[in-house]
Amino acid sequence: MIKKFIYTVFSVCLIFVLTGCGGKGNDAPEGTEITVTPGSITISDAGAVRWDQSSFTIIVKNEDDIPLSNVRLNISFPFARSARLTSGFVVQLLNDDGNSTNSPMEAVTGTNGTYVLRFDYLRGSLSYNADILITSGTSSVIPNFTVEDGS
Questions:
Q1: What's the pLDDT tens digit per position in 66-83?
Q2: Which CATH number goes with the domain that contains 104?
Q3: 42 CB contacts (<8 Å, ≥6 apart)?
């Protein structure tokens, strides 16, 4: 009976330990710098309204300029929603599987300290401008995305 109890307690503890490993990354430590390339994107197009795709590369480095892997990023884009044809929404954030996801979204940097933020957006005879807020821990960066109607 005691042996069964010990095995049960051990199994439960092991499950807690294993679920604490890996997961969805960690917040960036104090002194981390988040940069984005390019720093801004401007699209100018007077053509027919249509969907296109673009991306920002997010780079996370510590104060010694060393890339940090497994850093959790929180990404907010005010015009982003997961349904393409929902009225008023012109940008779709894409997750790692290429599926659209709602804003805000979470992502995790890879082994080289980067994450490529891909998104679909409407372009053509319409205009909009948005800042994208990317945060982790106390670090943040705000790249800009602008679409102009080309007129």
A1: 999 999 999 998 766 655
A2: 2.60.40.10
A3: 146, 147, 148
